[in-house]
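Incident log entry.

Two folding requests arrived from the same account within the same minute. Monitoring flagged them as a possible duplicate submission, but the sequences differ. Recording both here for audit purposes.

Request one:
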Amino acid sequence: MEKSRGNAGVCSSKTVTLPRLNRLNPSLESTALKIMEESGELAQAIGKFRGLNGERLRVEETEAMHMVAQELIDVAQTAVTMMFVLEEQYAIDIEKILKEHVEKLKQKGYCD
């Protein structure tokens, strides 16, 4: 993962490169459902750390944050898979959408 060094007031960014999964035939619907599943697993990992899962035994912070990071990457991989679906099956220009997204963030004052 690359991390840019931002100046004060400038959005810093991270670059994560995730592969196109070539042993699947994901649809828009199956990928959306998978994002929800993975998001639920991310919430469970956070719940284990915070003691919100109803279990008496809480997970130590280092282990919990490792679990959170793993689940977050699963969410990101599934989101990237959906981007491939949108590009390949619906001819959506993800690069254009990404630029629009960054511009929206700038207009809202979240970054320069």
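Request two (distinct sequence, not a duplicate):
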Amino acid sequence: MELTDWASDHLLATVGITLGFLTLTAVSVLGIAGWLLAAVLGLGGTGALGSLLPLFVVGLVVGVPVSVVGVVAVAVGLAARASSAVSGTTEIAGIRLGRVASYVERENEYARMVGLADLVENFDTRSAEQRADDRTERLKERYVEGEISEHEFEQRMQTVLDEEGVQREGVSTIDDELRAAERN
């Protein structure tokens, strides 16, 4: 079991261990700072703090790296918990967000310049083929309803297939489907 898996499964223990090592680090820093301050100002008690100085140094050498690892483990554990809690809704939201981004990009020049659909693509968990199917279906509907010309349809279809990285073999079946739809 990896540290991140353990941290996610035992989040409360990870937080407790991390807080313990953060406390060790803080006490070690304060002990070393107190000894230095007492030595510089010539105050008494440098002998007592001086005898604890090796422990403070060991605490600092051990506490800092373990604290850093602990903070990272807590962050990863919290992120894993949060992502598992929303994973079901994220897939649906990603699909909707991808569709909206594709529409906005088609209709808005600035969104195309920014590459909005590419930015949102990470949220869309569908495969390239599924995204291409969805986009081509919308193009077919617009063509059949007369919103776009045949030439514009073919250009946009090619763009969709290129953007999604889908093989061009599907174009002939799409053309056949369109011809059948036009006849009906």
